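Appendix B, record 7
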Amino acid sequence: MTAIGHAATLARFELRRVRGFAMDVDRSLRVRVREGRLVQVLLNLLVNAAQATRTDHPHEVSVIARRSDDGGCSILVRDTGAGMRADMLARVFEPFFTSKPAGQGTGLGLPISRTLVEEMDGRLSIESVFDVGTTVRIELPLVEG
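Structure tokens (predicted):
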């Protein structure tokens, strides 16, 4: 999955603010997608994860790509940052909704990311716990053979 490596390289400026960044990627997985679009989605998720800072401690970001139980590809982008309250989580896919301070976010990254993943015949979902962290899951079909 070279898309993950490309996205991590592009996000390195933002990732410098986290205590640790790790990638655990099964490189044998092959998905049929436009690589540039997957890089765009992953870059957005990595930047969001890096910016999800808490004032009380540095946080970590990781990307895990594995074969899912249903035979597809599962990509997780996790952070141990600020997390989101349930009311915020319910709105993350609304265009122009942002939890970032004024001038620091457009509120378009997650809605666009979800649309791009759906166009790849995949799913994007988010789990988050306030003051604990967030996990974004991308599920994509694997290339047969």
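Remarks on this record: The beta strands are 20-25, 60-67, 73-79, 123-129, 133-140. The mean pLDDT is 90.
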